[in-house]
Design goal:
Blueprint: H1 2-18, H2 25-38, E1 42-43, E2 57-61, E3 64-66, E4 80-89, E5 92-101, H3 107-125, H4 133-147, E6 151-152, E7 158-160, E8 167-171, E9 188-191, E10 194-196, E11 202-204, E12 211-213, E13 219-221, E14 224-229, E15 232-235, H5 243-249
Antiparallel strand pairs: 1-4, 2-4, 3-12, 4-5, 6-10, 7-8, 7-9, 9-14, 10-13, 11-12, 14-15
Length: about 260
């Protein structure tokens, strides 16, 4: 899973640099698929579920929360694009997402992205061997609530991951701590806060994939796949395993 995770992390860094004004979301998808296949991986998303997802990444722009289908849409200055990427290597999955500002974005939008990304790390850092899944959920919610008035999407969650992209248990982004399955060594989870500048309410669009905010407010989405070791979290989709970000938060690093 670390090999698949590294491929996802490196692909997202490639797309972060490419998400510039004048670039289409379809071009981002082309770059992602080429990079994944060139490094021996298979895009997890392409052909997934029903109706089959038609692309190798999800590219959700502005008020689109998740599962946006890449295509002819051209990114413009001030947009944000949430890029979700998955790869399979030797039967094992990695899954992660980033939200990128296109050119200069407003201070309000920068704050949205900061809060969402930090909530992801606070959630992962709340995980302890012997703890419960909703310890993560509670930490995500508490951090978002402490930062201001934001909407936390409740209808879509993180998930277990391993030999399949989506496995039990679900990992909500809100709720009381101390509930759900026990966190044991070897369990891998994809944690993915989805946060808006407005309401938590969402709509599924006519393409049967794209999820957007009901009120048109911008949304951000960040995700990592991680596992727990006796030493601490090991973030499988972070290029450095999460070492630098965990150090900033004062959390022991569990990787290798």
């Amino acid at each position: 899973m670390r090999v698949a995770g590294l491929l996802v992390g490196e692909t997202l860094e490639l797309l972060r640099a490419a998400a510039q004004p004048g670039v289409s979301t379809g071009r981002l998808d082309e770059l992602a698929e080429a990079n994944i296949r060139d490094h021996g991986g298979i895009p997890s998303f392409k052909g997934y579920s029903h109706p089959p997802f038609p692309a190798s990444i999800c590219a959700s722009v502005n008020d689109e929360i998740v599962h946006g289908i890449p295509g002819e849409r051209i990114l413009v200055e001030g947009d944000i694009v949430s890029i979700d990427c998955g790869a399979i290597v030797d039967g094992w999955h990695g899954d992660a997402a980033i939200t990128v500002g296109v050119g200069e974005v407003t201070a309000e939008v920068r704050e949205l992205m900061r809060v969402t990304e930090e909530a992801l790390w606070h959630g992962m850092c709340a995980a302890r061997l012997g703890g419960r899944v909703t310890d993560i959920s509670h930490a995500v919610e508490q951090h978002v609530r402490s930062q201001g008035s934001f909407g936390i999407i409740e209808d879509y969650t993180g998930h277990g991951i391993g030999s399949e992209m989506h496995m039990p248990p679900n990992v909500p982004n809100f709720g009381r701590a101390g509930r759900g399955p026990t966190l044991v060594q070897g369990l891998a989870l994809a944690v993915e806060p989805m946060v808006t500048l407005g309401s938590k309410e969402s709509d599924l669009l006519e393409d049967e994939w794209t999820v957007a905010t009901v009120d048109g407010s911008f949304a951000a989405h960040f995700e990592h796949t991680f596992t727990l070791t006796e030493a601490g979290p090991w973030v499988l989709t972070a290029v450095d395993g999460g070492r630098s970000r965990l150090a900033e938060l004062g959390i022991p690093y569990g990787g290798r």
